[in-house]
């Protein structure tokens, strides 16, 4: 066996023996790490000043008073006035905990003694913040009611979950505390092993050994890594069996803990080489542990503490370890960076710290032994590896470390592939869930509208109403409001409902369609003959094969709409805007009020039957195909 390997194995055995002799020190180190685990769980207290968006659609006096009461709620809300799109985007990014929407009729409903409904969307990154919002809202509402002597105010919270499961704050903190435990154990044991060599004076003996002295120290560091890995079983077991936090991805958890141990061990080697004394090393490691953890942004997801602390957190490897651990245990992405990026950065940390710790250790050994080397004037300088500048010897004989690094790299690659696939699946599931929620909301809007209109038809005789009747004005306003909130598919269903109930029949035209929002609607194939939709906005709508024979379509906006195959024969289309509209194969025979100039603005007239009955030439290439 090569001398370098013998020295490495000898150092490994010597450190194991040393640690077994120092069982009390080893036990205290592990106990201290576990103590930190319990300590961080104490932070799971009631949160304060949760970032909350307020969307005030009412602007009335009662809405402003309610916002004032929210701001006065003790340590509860950090209110930020935002528009709906910005608030939803911030909630999805994790920059907000909740969105509170005050509807347009809030002040009016309160003034009339009616029920006022608020919409509250809550992010469920952890349930403590969610519950804090739910507890704080009733308190603010009671204060609001008492202040104004109101009795009929109720709140219907609507929780929108960004992920399909909840995570308690204590489980969140305990998992992040595992990164702190890895730092305490690995950094402490490695730092003590190196500092002991300097403190005991054995560095001088290693300097004159016939093999490179780094082999012996490397063996000791590898021994501390093995012991650290075994020691981490205890805090992981406490998290799993004590706190009942089961890892969803065990291999990912094991991989990041092993990689963290390597990084923190190298940090310990660097500290031991700089301080060269065991007591300062122990004090510094224990003193740095909690501040390093707190500054790594581990207590809260994303950046609720502000951009400065979030930026500082990126300096610490604990930040990236926590990001991966939360994913491994809870499937939470608590950093803006994806998990694979965190893993790559940790690999970079491992490589950099291996080089830095090796350089610092070699420099410290040279400083420690240079005086003795000059005095003894050794006659065999070839054995003094420190002065020959041959760091490559360490790499040539250090095949276990190289194999270990390759193993970590392979694990990282495998975890990256698995994580990317899992993230894609999770994203697909989330999109499907969001679509389902949106579909349900749209269905409810449409159903509520149909119920309201049915009541107006049955009880208020809407079909026989005059232009100035209140019931007609209410129906017009209700239709406009709902259509602004519906997607293209539900706009088509609403329009078909109006047609089937004869509310837009050409002879009655109860609902005033002028300026009504039907943009982007999916009306393909609908039969709307003899209807009156004067002044409606159909820009960008899908009107393929729609039947609008003899319909009244004056002042319609059909710009960029797809009317291919539509039947518009006999329709009134005066002042219709058809800029860039697709009228391929449409039937315009007998259309009244449409000029040649208007037709010239259409995007396509291939195969179109013109008002005079003539047919435009079709697409020759398409016909050949």
UniProtKB/TrEMBL annotation:
Domain of life of the source: Bacteria
Keywords, sorted A to Z: Cell membrane, Membrane, Transmembrane, Transmembrane helix
Record flagged with keyword Cell membrane: yes
GO terms of molecular function: ABC-type transporter activity
Entry's localization field: Cell membrane
Chief site of localization: membrane
Membrane-spanning ranges: 24-45, 169-195, 215-241, 253-273, 308-328, 340-361, 399-417
Region (Disordered): 602-625
Entry membrane topology: Multi-pass membrane protein
One Pfam assignment: ABC2_membrane_3
Protein name: ABC-2 type transporter transmembrane domain-containing protein
Organism: Reticulibacter mediterranei
Organism ancestry: Bacteria, Bacillati, Chloroflexota, Ktedonobacteria, Ktedonobacterales
């Amino acid at each position: 066996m090569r001398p370098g390997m013998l020295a490495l194995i000898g150092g490994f055995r010597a450190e194991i023996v040393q640690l077994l002799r120092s069982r009390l020190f080893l036990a205290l180190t592990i106990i201290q790490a576990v103590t930190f685990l319990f300590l961080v769980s104490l932070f799971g207290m009631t949160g304060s000043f949760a970032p909350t968006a307020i969307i005030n659609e009412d602007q009335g006096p009662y809405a402003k008073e309610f916002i004032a009461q929210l701001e006065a709620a003790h340590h509860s809300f950090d209110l930020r006035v935002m528009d709906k799109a910005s608030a939803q985007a911030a909630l999805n990014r994790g920059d907000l905990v909740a969105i509170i929407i005050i509807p347009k009729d809030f002040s009016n409903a309160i003034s009339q003694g009616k029920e006022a409904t608020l919409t509250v969307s809550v992010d469920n990154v952890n349930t403590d913040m969610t519950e804090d919002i739910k507890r704080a809202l009733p308190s603010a509402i009671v204060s609001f009611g008492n202040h104004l002597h109101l009795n009929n105010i109720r709140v219907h919270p609507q929780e929108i979950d960004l992920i399909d499961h909840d995570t308690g704050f204590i489980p969140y903190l305990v998992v992040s505390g595992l990164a702190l435990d890895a730092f305490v154990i690995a950094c402490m044991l490695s730092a003590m092993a190196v500092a002991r060599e300097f403190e005991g004076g054995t560095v001088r003996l290693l300097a004159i050994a016939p093999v490179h002295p780094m082999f012996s120290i490397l063996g000791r560091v590898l021994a501390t890594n093995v012991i650290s890995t075994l020691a981490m079983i205890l805090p992981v077991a406490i998290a799993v069996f004590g706190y009942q936090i089961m890892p969803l991805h065990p291999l990912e958890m094991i991989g990041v803990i092993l990689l963290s141990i390597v990084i923190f061990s190298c940090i310990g080697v660097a500290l031991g080489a700089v301080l060269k004394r065991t007591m300062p090393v122990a004090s510094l490691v224990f003193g740095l542990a909690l501040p390093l953890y707190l500054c790594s942004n581990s207590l809260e997801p994303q950046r609720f503490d502000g951009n400065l602390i979030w930026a500082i957190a990126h300096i610490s490897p604990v930040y990236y370890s926590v990001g991966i651990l939360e994913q491994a245990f809870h499937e939470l992405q608590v950093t803006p960076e994806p998990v694979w990026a965190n893993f790559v950065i940790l690999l970079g940390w491992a490589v950099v710290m291996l080089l830095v710790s090796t350089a610092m250790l070699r420099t410290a050994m040279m400083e420690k032994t240079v005086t003795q080397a000059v005095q003894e004037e050794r006659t065999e300088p070839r054995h003094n590896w420190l002065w020959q500048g041959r760091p490559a010897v360490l790499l040539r004989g250090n095949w276990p470390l190289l194999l270990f690094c390759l193993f970590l790299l392979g694990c990282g690659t495998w975890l990256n592939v698995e994580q990317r696939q899992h993230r894609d699946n999770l994203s697909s599931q989330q999109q499907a869930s969001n679509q389902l929620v949106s579909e349900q909301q749209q269905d409810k809007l449409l159903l509520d509208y149909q119920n309201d209109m049915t009541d107006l038809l049955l009880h208020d005789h809407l079909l026989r109403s005059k232009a100035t009747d209140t019931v007609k004005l209410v129906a017009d306003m209700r239709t406009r409001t709902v259509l602004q909130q519906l997607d293209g598919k539900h706009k088509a269903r609403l329009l078909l409902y109006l047609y089937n109930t004869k509310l837009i029949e050409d002879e009655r035209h109860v609902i005033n369609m002028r300026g009504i929002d039907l943009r982007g609607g999916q009306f393909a194939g609908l039969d709307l003959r003899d209807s009156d939709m004067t002044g409606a906005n159909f820009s960008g709508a899908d009107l393929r094969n729609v039947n609008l024979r003899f319909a009244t379509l004056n002042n319609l906006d059909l710009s960029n709409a797809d009317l291919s195959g539509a039947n518009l024969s006999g329709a009134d289309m005066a002042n219709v805007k058809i800029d860039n509209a697709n009228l391929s194969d449409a039937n315009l025979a007998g259309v009244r009020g449409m000029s040649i100039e208007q037709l010239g603005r259409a995007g396509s007239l291939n195969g179109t039957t013109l008002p005079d009955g003539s047919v435009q030439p079709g697409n020759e290439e398409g016909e050949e195909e």
